[in-house]
Amino acid sequence: MKDLWKLYAAFFRIGGLTFGGGLTMLPMLKYELVEKNGWVTEEELLDYYAVGQCTPGIIAVNVSTFVGFRKKGIPGAIFSTLGMISPSLIIVSILAFFLEQFMSNQIVAHAVGGIKVVVCALMLQTVITMAKKNLVSAVCYVVAILAFLLALFTPVPTVLLVLVAGIVGIIMYKTGGIKL
User: Which of 2, 13, 77, 162 could lock onto 68 through a cystine, CB 3.0 to 4.6 A?
Assistant: First the structure.
């Protein structure tokens, strides 16, 4: 049990002291995991980091899960992952508490409203950029428009829309309807 708490504490430090994600956390990961604790070699860390970039989710959380699993199996993966995400959960909870206290203030409410508008604009810009790169045929446009309309005006689950669009894409690729 002591080893599990040591994993938790090490990843808690990493999670609480690394800001910016990506490559900015690599020196801290190297110090804690390779130099200080000797849990992995530098080569293994870089392998875990590379795999963490390729898998869904946050790189640091993925690395923590891999290292924890390597050291102590599933309990190690759980403790390491919890250690990595705990600082963020604590900080976000505190911020949410204070933000909720100030939401009755008109200035704060309008600021949050402005932030929401900017977030929507940034999301729309991302969608447009992705559409320009990925809508390569008339079939793609039809699928995108149908998916958009179904998502907007029906209770069809998003997962189902993605699965059907993926199947249509595979069929169109196999039949020569889409050239990538």
Answer: 77
Clarify whether residues 79 and 45 are in a common domain: yes
Q: Is the pLDDT of residue 159 over 70?
A: yes
What residues make up the domain containing 144? 135-180
Mean pLDDT computed over 8-30 = 82
Using alpha carbons, list the distances in angstroms from residue 89 to 12, 25, 84, 100.
11, 18, 10, 16
Reported confidence tier of residue 8, pLDDT bands at 50, 70, 90: very high
Would the pTM count as exceeding 0.70? no
The b/e string for 127-166 (b: 16+ C-beta within 10 A; e otherwise) is: eeeeeeeeeeeeebeebeeebeeeeeeeeeeeeebeeeee
Q: How many domains, the chain?
A: 3
Instruction: Examine the domain organization and report whether 29 and 82 are in the same domain.
Output: yes
Clarify whether residues 97 and 110 are in a common domain. Answer: no
Task: Show Cβ contacts of residue 178 under 8 Å, excluding neighbours closer than 6 positions.
Answer: 136, 137, 139, 140, 169, 172
